[in-house]
Design a protein that fits this description.
The protein is of the alpha/beta class. The chain has 15 helices and 13 strands. The protein has helices spanning about 10-20, 45-60, 70-85, 100-115, 130-135, 155-165, 190-200, 220, 225-230, 260-280, 285-295, 300-330, 335-340, 350-360, 380-390, and strands spanning about 30, 90-100, 120-125, 140-145, 145-150, 155, 170-175, 205-210, 235-240, 250-260, 345, 365, 370-375. The strands form four sheets. It has a seven-stranded mixed sheet, sandwiched between helices. A two-stranded parallel sheet has the order 1-12. The chain has a two-stranded antiparallel ribbon with strand order 5-6. The radius of gyration is 21 Å and the shape is globular.
Amino acid sequence: MLNHLHEQPKDKILQLMQLYKDDPRDTKIDLGVGVYKDASGKTPIMRAIKAAEKQLWNEETTKSYTGLAGDPGYQDAMIGLVLGDAVPRDRVAAAATPGGTGAIHMVLETVKMANPDATVWLSTPTWPNHPSILKHLGMKTAAYRYFDEATLAVDFTGMMEDLGALKSGDVVLLHGCCHNPTGANLNLTEWAQVADLLQEKGAIPFVDIAYQGFGDGLEQDAAGVRLLAGRFDEMMIAASCSKNFGIYRERTGIVMAIAPDTATRDITQGNLAHLNRQNFSFPPDHGARLVTMILNDPALKADWMAELEEVRLGMLALRQQLADELQRLSGSDRFGFVAQHRGMFSRLGATPEQVLELREKHGIYMVGDSRVNIAGLNKDSIPILAAALLDVGV
């Protein structure tokens, strides 16, 4: 049986991680992996997480299962964080998942169960796992333009032109904030225009929001998803706690489905629980429990929000420093987009050949499309990166 298996495509980012690990140079810089790092290159445990873990250690009395959809308190807390009061709670079905990736998989499985003929539209470019999961599930896909390689900003005209081909029942995957891999985001006016078009075409929005709080702030980063939630009878959302709570290894995510009424919501809730049962039975609870504790405790929540704001402002400062250094060295403002992008990532506009030269000549590791993790930089490595970029002709 096993001899009939075929080798699967290698994950380019994982390959890049290994190349970086094997590089003996002390001056090497890792800008490839999509994990938040502080100035020392470590992914810290947030203060509120540590405090919640200590409290949980003292108070937890059982390791028994929660429900198939996870703890209801976690669902309520995350719906409040992502959606605020944009939609009544009794219209939202939700289920805890193993990370944001698990939530994305759950959304797409739900779409496939509800409408096997639906086409899922993806931005060009998008997170590579989006098309990979869709291919694994055997679902139909289409692409819409999103990023202008010349301006290194959102190609909104191209996006709207492409989405003009939507058919009723199609699903459009949108990044809630901090677009991965480009860092280029829609503004609220553009969100509203996208909503108008999707409603006109009878399409359903699916928002992947993995970086809430990393861009312009917790509330501002949720503005787009809340605008859609307030206007659509049906909508799907996948959210992750890996980044904004710093609990990558706890695999803490959630899927939300907005239904037109409570009866449909109840049926949808049952289907989400059914899918959890088929995939992994009961979802992990440790990370979800910590998130719930933090969001429901005013003191813990305030400390978490303060530290998250420090992280956000730190990344903005790195962006501005890099843009300023590139302007100083080049005498040009063509790199100003770096300061305008949001979140951990930016596409720098380097060719694959230039990316390879950066790695071989300067020990600077980034994904082949020139996506860099801004959080992989610090004040000392930014001048090195800037000089290297100009040296290879970016």
